[in-house]
From TrEMBL:
Residues 239-276 form a coiled coil. Residues 1-18 form the signal peptide. It comes from the Bacteria. It comes from Flagellimonas taeanensis. Keywords: Coiled coil, Signal. This is Uncharacterized protein.
Length: 276
């Protein structure tokens, strides 16, 4: 609507020039390729055009105030289409809303709601800051918030309240995931001073608690979730403990096999002696 007013004013000015149709009040001057329309009404409406071939002629105005259209050169206001502050261009910055544009594109909505929308075929994406919110939402036409950016640096996918740098409500599909360790790797299990619990003690612990030592219960994991890096290290600790148990069991089996060989040889000698 505001842009239409601008073109109508320009069209009227050109029509006035070509037909020499002067108003009953106010001034109309046409001289030396310059055209000036002025009015004495209380509403300061002004259209000024000047040739820009010469340095002194830097002024051009299209001005209807209180508070409508303003386009100025020397009076600082550049390209301002307003009806309560709807569209402002100043110093190369564009404002949609009320106030002074601070960025190349500044969208300001004091009430709240969607600030920017992209639509095609009846479907749209919206970018908005909700009332008194520290979050930027990116959502779809079904009003679901697909992405959320929080001022503390947290980013949410499928959630409007991300509690971590990346919070995802749903599945993650990736070819590879790299996790930096916050806890040491469990190579300490292989040190001589490591306290490897006897299997009987582990068995008693399982009977009493229903889960392995140093591993959270199913209830705890269901309530608090798991820390992926930490849990992987705990599982690796159990694998290394199992390796030590297997090594010990294999050593005992070797000893038993040797003892069994000795017994078999002794049995054969006894049988041989009894036959004599």
């Amino acid at each position: 609507m505001k842009i239409s007013i601008l073109f109508v004013l320009i069209l009227l000015s050109l029509t006035s020039w070509s037909q020499n149709d002067f108003p009953n009040s106010g001034d109309a001057k046409i001289q030396d390729a310059k055209m000036v329309f002025q009015t004495t009404y209380w509403l300061p409406s002004l259209i000024t055009m000047q040739d820009t071939h010469y340095n002194p002629y830097q002024t051009y105005h299209f001005q209807i105030e209180s508070d409508g259209l303003k386009i100025k050169q020397d009076d600082t206001v550049n390209y301002q289409f307003k009806s309560g502050g709807d569209f402002v261009v100043r110093n190369g910055n564009i404002l949609l809303g009320q106030g002074t544009p601070l960025f190349k594109l500044h969208i300001k909505d004091p009430i709240g709601g969607a600030a920017l929308g992209l639509e095609r075929g009846g479907k749209f994406w919206r970018f908005d800051l909700q009332n008194n919110s520290d979050r930027l939402y990116i959502g779809h036409s079904d009003n679901s918030s697909m992405f959320t950016f929080h001022k503390n640096g947290n980013f949410g996918i499928g959630t409007t309240a991300p509690d971590a740098k990346l919070a995802v409500k749903g599945d993650i599909h990736a070819e590879e995931v790299k996790v930096d360790l916050a806890v040491p790797g469990p190579d300490y299990v292989f040190k001589e001073d490591y306290d490897l619990k006897p299997l009987e003690e582990v068995q008693n612990y399982i009977k009493e608690h229903g889960h392995l030592p140093n591993i959270p219960s199913a209830k705890e994991m269901g309530t608090n979730g798991i820390q992926l890096g930490e849990m992987n290290m705990k599982l690796l600790e159990k694998i290394e403990e199992l390796t030590l148990y297997i090594i010990e069991q294999n050593r005992k089996i070797d000893e038993l096999e040797k003892d069994n060989d000795k017994l078999q040889k002794l049995e054969q000698r006894i049988i041989y002696l009894e036959k004599k």
